[in-house]
Amino acid sequence: MSINKEDLLRFDQRPQNHCFACGIANPDGLQIEFLLDADRSVYGFPVIPARYDGYPGHVHGGIIATLLDEVMSKSVRAKGFTAVTRHIEVDYLRPVPSSTPLRIEGRVTHNEGRKHWTEGKVIDKDGKLLARGKALFLEVTRPETEGGNR
Known about the structure:
It is built from one helix and seven strands, in the order βββαββββ. By secondary structure, it is mainly β. It has one domain: Hotdog Thioesterase (Thiol Ester Dehydrase, Chain A), CATH 3.10.129. The protein has a seven-stranded antiparallel sheet, with helices on one face. The longest helix is centred in the middle third of the chain and has 18 residues, at 61-78. The protein is globular. The chain starts with 8 loop residues before the first strand and ends in an 11-residue tail after the last strand.
């Protein structure tokens, strides 16, 4: 399936966000911009710099897991839920090259109460599946802080 970036909506991100994966305000992070399609699936198109290599020329496995965790987390948020990762599985299918365009995809596959199951993919520029993941996210509520701020 071909994805046209122009057909996707920008996923809102806060400018003060310091998240390692998506934080615009984190100069050491990946700063991935996320986009949404009509069914609220989430896409990102990162180029992971060589400073995040494991083996030279290939993205470290921990960064690959981060990509999957983040895109799946965003898919839950895109459905209107605030949730945290409870369990994640990652299948490393092929080496993921660094310094080259990638596509990451995430979607919610099932909801049951506070539980949200997701799937994610890391795909190369030629459409080859490099890694995939599944995760369970648990919905959380934030406690009120002093002064009523959230």
